[in-house]
Design a protein that fits this description.
Layout (H helix, E strand, L loop, with lengths): L4 E4 L2 H22 L3 E5 L4 H11 L2 H6 L5 E5 L1 E3 L9 H8 L11 E2 L7 H15 L2 E2 L2 E2 L3 E4 L24 E5 L6 E5 L1 H4 L4 E6 L5 H8 L19 E7 L7
Bound molecules: 6-phosphogluconic acid.
């Protein structure tokens, strides 16, 4: 199997490993730096991770120095935080409320704001709170999902230019639902020290194969442009999503 690929029986098993990794990696980082910056993606796959993180053995969670952890989002739907579509809303309901983390360490994208204004506001938040490397924010860890059309974050196949924008974040529009989104740009996504794609389900198997095998069609997919710049890129897949590789 190619390096950087881990395959799990299902999304729950993947979540278990992710939580173990989370405790190990953040404990290591806490020895080296005052604040740890983590950007989480939206969609349904991370929900398993959130539930596991919240239900995890409280002693292990208590060992995590939440004062040093800063959570950001990879993208957000332009809806209020309480809306069912809100990526922050899901994370908050499922785990942020269950941990003792200072409110100022939660850097949500404010989906209720005017999208273009919010893209600017969130970019400033990143500039102030995430270390800058190669002129772009460099997160300690970014979690990414993979859309069935090959989108990553809220960079869709018809908006490839967002991969190469010199801004930290931009507005975008979901091609089918026309929902306004705010998204980190490609140069921020690839700049993280650790990038983990978390992908589950039969519906992703074809696109996973095309990207991992670097098939020509993959250049149509924003996710295929995510290569790490001086960091580590890995794929956490369940058996269904990995069934063609
Ligand atoms: C979003 C996400 C998006 C998601 C993928 C995969 O806001 O929807 O950031 O990029 O990660 O669409 O979603 P699933 O995990 O639901 O397959």
């Amino acid at each position: 199997m190619e390096p950087g690929i881990k395959i799990f029986s299902n999304a729950s098993e993947m979540a278990e490993e992710l939580v173990e990794d989370f405790c190990r990696y953040t404990t290591e980082l806490a020895r080296l730096k005052k604040s740890i910056t983590i950007a989480i993606c939206g969609g349904t796959t991370p929900l398993y991770f959130y539930r596991r993180l919240a239900s995890f053995n409280s002693i292990s969670l208590k060992k995590i120095d939440w004062e040093r952890m800063h959570f950001f989002w990879v993208d957000e739907r332009c809806v209020p935080a309480v809306h069912q579509d809100s990526n922050f809303g899901s994370a908050n309901r499922l785990f942020l409320r269950a941990i003792d983390i200072p409110e100022e360490n939660i850097h949500r994208i404010q989906g209720e704001n005017v999208p273009s204004d919010e893209a600017l506001r969130y970019s400033n938040d990143l500039r102030l709170n995430v270390s800058i490397r190669n002129k772009f924010p460099s997160f300690d860890w970014i979690f990414l999902g993979l859309g069935e059309d090959g989108h990553v974050a809220s960079i869709f196949p018809d908006q490839l230019k967002l991969l190469f924008s010199d801004k930290f974040c931009e507005t975008s529009v979901h091609p089918r639902t026309k929902q306004n989104r705010i998204t980190l740009t490609g140069k921020v996504l690839i700049n993280a020290r650790r990038i983990t794609f978390i992908v589950s389900g039969e519906s992703k198997k074809q696109i996973v194969k095309e990207i991992i095998k670097k098939e020509p069609v993959a250049k149509l997919y924003p996710a295929s442009y995510i290569k790490s710049v001086g960091g580590r890129l890995e794929w956490y897949l369940d058996k269904q999503a990995a069934s063609l590789i």
